[in-house]
Automatic annotation (TrEMBL), chain A:
Lipoprotein keyword on record: no
Keywords from the named record: FAD, Flavoprotein, Signal
GO molecular function, one term: flavin adenine dinucleotide binding
Residues in the signal sequence: 1-29
Protein name: NAD(FAD)-dependent dehydrogenase
Chain ranges of the Flavocytochrome c sulphide dehydrogenase flavin-binding domain: 355-421
Domain FAD/NAD(P)-binding: 31-135
Domain annotation Sulfide dehydrogenase [flavocytochrome c] flavoprotein chain central: ranges: 162-277
Amino acid sequence: MILSLTRRALLGGGAALLAAPCLSAGAKAASVVIVGGGFGGATAARSLRRAIPDLRIILVEPHHLHVTCPGSNAVVGGLGPLSRLEHGYDQLRSRFGVEVVRDSVAAIEGDARRVRLLGGGWIAYDRLIVSPGIDLLWNEIEGYDEAAAAVMPHAWKAGGQTALLRRRLEAVEDGGVVVIAVPGNPFRCPPGPYERAGLIAWHLSRTRRGCKVLILDAKDSFSKQALFQEGWAALYGDMVEWVSGAGNGRVVRVNAAEGWVETDFDRFTPALANIIPPQSAGRVAVAAGLADAGGFCPVDPATFESRRMPGIHVIGDACMAGEMPKSASSANNQAKIAAAAVAASLAGRDFATAKAINVCYSLLAPDYAVSVAGVYEVAGGRRAGVAGAGGISPLGADPHVHKAEAEYAAGWYAGICADAWGA
Amino acid sequence: MRSLAVFMAVMVLAAASPARADGQARLMAETCTVCHSPEIHSPLPSLAGRPAGDILRVLLAFRDGSRPASIMDRIARGYSREELGAIAGELGRKGAP
């Protein structure tokens, strides 16, 4: 058991060796274990290091790179390679003294304050931060399972699925229809499907004739809707069509082998179907009992400590943060608040929470972006938008406004990635 | 006896509040450096090394709409004058919180 972890640790980088199994929290330095190395987990690790120089910080992450979902629609649209979305853990190890263990958490034992690793052994913690992102709910749409996703990609976790959707898009011929199926709330990245629609239209409008992007939605309204619809019309005419849930847009059934997608009343056989299925908190959180019946994890909005298991904080897409959307920006800010709450609790200090921000840019074309921003306070037991603040980019803006927002979007991406994994 | 307890509670709160406020200001300021990163070259200006007074003046101008903005007006309106002052103090003091 120890041998297998050691071998993996050596492959993954020397620092992970320190996180040998069966280490207790110890009498001196406290230990915090973080589950998941995405925007939430990586940012939490760095924030904890800033707060407590001698803290043991152990990040458990099964992949040697994180591939970000932000930016992945641009890869689908052909604006850049997938590799530019990849972020490794070297700086977390070398600059910030984080022990990165390349493994999956098989179980969280909240009473014993330890996590069990899939590869064997366990790691004890004083506080646990769980940031597992989402998992996809297979067969919620009848016929949509992992095998179907190899034909009708979801591309809602970035990586191989992103590359697959790009390849499938390149194979779409003149006159082809691309269907994007969008789930009901809540789901990861509320504006993401609509950004994707625009960037797919951008690709098709430049390389093909007579193509169409058909969004089949379970919902009757969506994030930044007026801005997207204004932009699609200006950039692509009537090429992008949105069908609401009330307009019979909810996809209920697919058949990957035959290539069709069904709503309650209509069947479509598109050249390419991108099915974004309903989602839950990452499996590890659900299995630990951190999620409620809706599949996501209720938390104290001031500290992001689980409402169901004390000593465990849940951040990012997996948690229910009131009005804060499931976004990288939310995960970043939640990570900092949770880390500060953890640091205060380890030091026996009171903790006063702070307002949080979400900032989100969406591209409609390489030089055309729109944004939404919000400031969120704790009110009525949840994170609620501060009245009078936040909102979307102005409607009817000059092209230079959207061009500037595209540049800011690139700056935001570089900054938030540097904030998580190092510059 | 009861009045002594109340007095003690007030004293404890009074002693605790500056530290709490400090931590809150730092937490709020840490959201700024996501975009205004001191670590990378970006179209968004770094705030490192700027005096707190300059940062506060710009934030207040975003807040009251007197300075043209992209998203900073939408964000600044979410904070009180006192909060913006505390954030500017953090950013101005350290550049990178």
